[in-house]
Amino acid sequence: MAPWTPATLETDRWETPTARTLVLSVPGWTGHRPGQHVDLRLRAPDGYTAERSYSIASASGPDRLEITVQLDPDGEVSPYLVHDFTPGDQVELRGPLGGWFVWDTTSPDPVVLIGGGSGIVPLAGMVRERRRTGNRALFRLLYSLRTPDDRYYRTELGPAAGPGVDVFLAYTRTAPPGSARGPKRLSVADLNTHGLPAELTPVCFVCGPTPFVETVADGLLALGHDPHRIRTERYGSGGGR
Where is the FAD-binding FR-type domain (predicted)? Predict the structure, then answer.
């Protein structure tokens, strides 16, 4: 297991009123694979510690990384990270971790990314790493979210995502005015229309709450996708595992 190391909050930005991206300075960090995560540990003055895992949102690079934390009002860790963690403060970090839910940046295989809520975080990291490395693999991103106000990375996960990356937004509670698709859950028909056909044998990455992940994975199987090319990751309500 990787050792714990200090990480300092360098800067931050708000993605939504309840989700905050943290840019962490980690001296000696040598980078990561897209889709990996880190463990964060908070330590109270009395010695009590609390740990959570968060996917890495940024492209790979030295000495810093980004995570996005969704507030869980009843959580131990996310309320501090969202509301009280200020530039210059430190946490302990361990990683990068994980070897299954990762995208191979050297592969030309097409990719389907399907995220629910804060499950968009590691998928955004894959889109950013594709842009950084110049990989030309065909990407399809399906992002399920409740309302327009809940949308993360709204500038990057749109036309700015780059050539070869198509983004589909599925609103489940409130759709934007004039939207041709009313608010409803992501369906098999959506996967069929906005994903990629099974005949292209894409690698499919699905991330979100457990019921969402299971429903999407079942839908992909019903469309004929190879179960060995469907990779899943489940999240808790605060954006961590």
Answer: 2-103
Same domain membership, residue 178 and residue 86? no
pLDDT tens by residue, 93-147: 999 999 999 999 999 999 999 999 999 999 999 999 999 999 999 999 999 999 9
By 3-state DSSP, what share of the chain in percent is helix, strand and coil, each rounded to 5? 25, 35, 45
Question: Do the beta carbons of residue 56 and residue 96 sit within 8 Å?
Answer: yes
Instruction: Using 50 as the pLDDT threshold, list the residues of the chain that sit under it.
Output: none
Domain that holds residue 136: 111-234
What's the CA gap between 202 and 166, in Å, rounded? 14
CATH number at residue 216: 3.40.50.80
Mean pLDDT of the chain: 94
Sheet holding 203-208, edge to edge: 165-171, 139-145, 111-116, 203-208, 230-234
Q: Does 131 fall in a domain?
A: yes
Q: Are residues 123 and 173 in the same domain?
A: yes
Q: Put residue 170 in one of left, alpha, beta given phi > 0 → left and psi -120 to 50 → alpha.
A: beta
Q: Cα 122–78–142 angle (5° rounding)?
A: 30
pTM: 0.95
Task: Confirm if 68 and 152 have CB atoms less than 8 A apart.
Answer: yes
56 contacts 65 by C-beta, under 8 angstroms: yes
* b/e sequence 123-152, b meaning 16+ C-beta within 10 Å: bbbbbbbbbeeebebebbbbbbbeebebbb
